[in-house]
Amino acid sequence: MLLKQNKESEKKGLFTRLKEGLAKTRSRFTQNISQLILGKKTLDKELLDLIEMQLLSADVGIESTQQLIHTLTEKLSRHELNNSETVLKILQDEMKKILLPAQIPLSIFSDKKPFVILMVGMNGAGKTTTIGKIAKKLQIENKSILLAAGDTFRAAAIEQLQVWGERNQIPVVSQQSGADTAAVIYDAMESAKSRAVDVLIADTAGRLHTQTNLMEELKKIKRVLTKLDATAPHEILLVLDASIGQNALTQAKQFNEAIGVTGLVLTKLDGTAKGGIIFAITNQLKLPIRFIGVGEGIDDLRPFDANEFVNALFE
Ligand SMILES: Nc1nc2c(ncn2[C@@H]2O[C@H](COP(=O)(O)OP(=O)(O)OP(=O)(O)O)[C@@H](O)[C@H]2O)c(=O)[nH]1
Ligand SMILES: [Mg+2]
């Protein structure tokens, strides 16, 4: 009984954090829409036009906006929009429908030993810190973990991972700065195999996507991993900074074309009013969103839940 209560209050606490994390997007996006809808006495085409404008200016994207407006327009013509609350409810339900296909959590398959996660993304997106948070979560699930310090370009990057690893008793395979990334990751993979480690998470550098050699390097890492396990890497996680809005979409397309992304992490949703980008990302990329980041703490990286996300945007 007490355990159940604890679980309930824990869940409530996490939802509150999610709500807090999404405060900026809520205050400049969904709150405006709610006010528009609830403040309007007549539910007509004009109202839908105003909603459409709000959606577009919040980076929701043309496709998702059209989908949302289309549903509302149909219901309006069928006289099914009786009151403001209904409009708001239908809008939220449609938003959940758009996001639901992206709600596929990361699963670690135990027949892959190690299960290899390759972390990619532009510099500053949040790769290294996200590795720390994911590793902690997996450690709590009793999985053994090894990290590969594959970002050998930034001098501080290797140390950042080493310090973190020491603090959390998670081993880190590294070489000196400037070393070949693919070689570091290959070494780490050999080591993970010989130690029968459950999960290997490999960090990489994130230089500008206009420099084609980053993509070439990532391809090389993939090839090298395949030599030790034909099915590796088992997950290529692209970390995207949500606060860059539409640019995140462009980046994602480039990474996906070059190396085939299998999952997304959307970070820094807490620092931005551009949270609407998640609709455009889901609609256009059709990739699972494994985690969303709404702050710097470990609990601020959470598995993506479409219902919870939309509820937090409107509450
Ligand atoms: N507010 C907030 N900050 C975040 C989030 N995720 C990451 N950060 C911060 O973003 C900054 C950059 O994160 P890193 O993990 O170093 O980014 P990176 O992708 O490894 O960057 P490079 O190593 O330069 O390629 C750090 O200060 C993180 O604490 C998030 O969800 N919310
Ligand atoms: Mg890094």
Brief synopsis:
Helix content is 55%, strand content 11%. The protein has 315 residues and is of the alpha/beta class. The protein has two domains: 2-102, SRP54, nucleotide-binding domain (Four Helix Bundle (Hemerythrin (Met), subunit A)), CATH 1.20.120.140; 115-304, P-loop containing nucleotide triphosphate hydrolases (Rossmann fold), CATH 3.40.50.
Question: Helix/strand-derived class?
Answer: alpha/beta
Output the CATH class name of the largest domain.
Answer: Alpha Beta
Number of domains: 2
The SSE order reads: HHHHHEHEHEHEHEHEHEEH
Name the overall outline: elongated
What order do the strands of the largest sheet run in, or round the barrel if closed?
Answer: 3-2-4-1-5-6-7-8
Biggest sheet layout = 8 strands, mixed
Number of helical stretches of at least 4 residues? 12
Can you tell me the CATH topology of the largest domain? Rossmann fold
Strand content: 5-15%
Going by CATH, the homologous superfamily of the largest domain would be P-loop containing nucleotide triphosphate hydrolases
Task: Give the CA-CA distance, first to last residue.
Answer: 28 Å
Mean of all residue-level pLDDT scores: 92
What is the gyration radius calculated from CA atoms?
21 Å
| Amount of helix | 40-55%
In terms of quaternary structure, the protein is single chain
Total DSSP E strands: 8
CATH architecture of the largest domain, by name, is 3-Layer(aba) Sandwich
Bound molecules: guanosine-5'-triphosphate, magnesium ion
